[in-house]
Design goal:
29% helix; eight-stranded parallel beta barrel; TIM Barrel; single chain; alpha/beta
């Protein structure tokens, strides 16, 4: 999701290590084993915290439902699933016990890598407790913004609020992630968010290769165009992994742009309900399968879970 603090040296034999022979858009080309430039990490955001089954019947609520969607996403090609917890009625929760049940149910079904959400409503203290469960990855929102959706037809906001993420909170989340061994996925809604990673790097709170997500399509953030995506990709240190998160129907054209620029992609019912042809997805697996088809059409290949571990933790040490 910088003047520019370069990523720490990851060693000569690691994907994304060093700057020599590296196409900034595509990642490292001179590493044995996994070809970092060829491989695409497909992530899936399973449920979000706001939308309900009234919006899309496939939205999962319970730990078992979320785990089943994780399995479907994994079987379709996703190596990472991004998870918000919900109560059984669909309302959001930060209950550590609920996250634990989701983790247990998911691990019974598949070996997909788990990415906990930390962003949204609620005191920061509530939004870090579940990191003690040691997910592989945790989302880290990198800045504050006006967060809105405007209806041209109704001439009014569908929603409109300030999404507050102070540097104090960002640093506290980053320290908690480091303590519990979770790799920060830096979620960036604009260029300033992306460049703010310099502070975390300077404090030793990030380990190379850095992991960015560019969220596009939210009013108040960066516009959802291929040109703006390319500009975001230019901001990250060489050797970093980055992906695009396109909101609603912007998901598919932005996914294609990311693939051509050498980036990774995220799909899922948190971000978008619809397949490229316009029909509503019946599961997260449907969306991942469509993304995997785009990856193959781009001439690149979908990374397996083991390959993603090599790409994101080239020296080992993942949870």
């Amino acid at each position: 999701m910088d003047s520019h603090v370069a990523a720490p040296d990851a060693g000569p034999s690691c994907p994304g290590a060093g700057h020599e022979g590296l196409d900034r858009r595509r990642g490292s080309r001179n590493c044995p084993g996994v070809n970092a430039a060829d491989k695409v990490i497909v992530s899936c955001a399973l449920t979000g915290a706001v939308t309900t089954k009234k919006h899309c019947p496939a939205i999962p609520y319970t730990p078992a439902e979320i785990a089943e969607e994780a399995r479907r996403a994994y079987e379709a090609g996703a190596a990472i699933v991004h998870i918000h917890a919900r109560n059984d009625d669909g309302s959001p929760t930060w209950s550590k016990d609920t996250f634990a049940r989701i983790m247990a149910e998911t691990r019974q079904r598949c070996p997909v890598l788990i990415n906990w959400s930390t962003g949204g409503a609620g005191p920061m203290t509530e939004r870090v407790e579940h990191l003690a469960l040691r997910p592989h990855i945790a989302a880290l929102n990198m800045g504050s913004m006006n967060y809105a959706k405007w209806s041209e037809a109704k001439k009014q906001f569908a929603f409109n609020f300030v999404f507050a993420n102070s540097f104090d909170d960002i640093l506290a989340f980053a320290r908690a992630m480091k303590e519990h061994g979770a790799k920060p996925e830096m979620e960036c809604f604009d260029v300033g968010h992306t460049n703010s990673h310099r502070v975390l790097a300077d404090l030793g709170l990030l380990e190379a290769p850095f992991h960015f997500s560019f969220i596009m399509g939210v009013l108040g953030g960066i516009p959802a165009t291929a040109r703006h995506l390319a500009f975001q990709a230019e901001q990250v240190p060489a050797g970093s992994r980055w992906k695009v998160i396109g909101i609603s129907r912007e998901q598919w054209p932005l996914a294609m742009a990311a693939l051509s620029l050498g980036g990774d992609v995220r799909v899922g019912l948190e971000d978008n309900f619809y397949l490229p042809g316009g029909e509503m997805a019946k599961s997260n697996g449907d969306l991942v399968a469509a993304a995997a088809d785009l990856v193959r059409l781009s001439g690149r290949s979908v990374a397996s879970v083991d390959e993603v571990k090599q790409l994101l933790w080239p020296r080992g040490g993942s949870n």
